[in-house]
Design brief:
This protein is an all-alpha fold. Helix content is about 45%, strand content about 0%.
């Protein structure tokens, strides 16, 4: 005869980074799952499987990225449009002055 299963639950506290918690809740909401049900599921699967029930991955570390000229200009332009870089571009009242500046005449 199997032992009776207890329905009593003991409270636990989990400390999460606020941003991680926010992202986790958003993802879990999309699959109609609560934080409590997620951690309960993970705990039960750990007990059943005897291991962490998912693959643990590390974020890829990027040492250095080199952009081509077109990409670099697009990034700089978007930063300027967002106000992250000062806009130091000259403005011109006529095309002659603009062409002189463009061709350094």
């Amino acid at each position: 005869m199997a032992a009776p299963v207890s329905k009593e639950k003991i409270g636990s506290t989990i400390h999460l980074d606020p941003e991680l918690r926010k992202e986790l809740i958003k993802g879990l909401d999309s699959i109609n799952m609560t934080l409590n049900s997620y951690f309960t599921l993970a705990a039960k699967q750990f007990v059943i499987q005897g291991k962490v029930p998912f693959e643990i991955k590390t974020a890829t570390k990027v040492e250095h990225v080199t952009f081509n000229e077109k990409t670099r200009k697009a990034i700089v332009r978007s930063f300027a449009e967002e106000g992250l870089l000062p806009n130091t571009a000259e403005t011109f009242d006529n095309t002659d002055d603009a062409m002189k500046e463009l061709f350094h005449d």
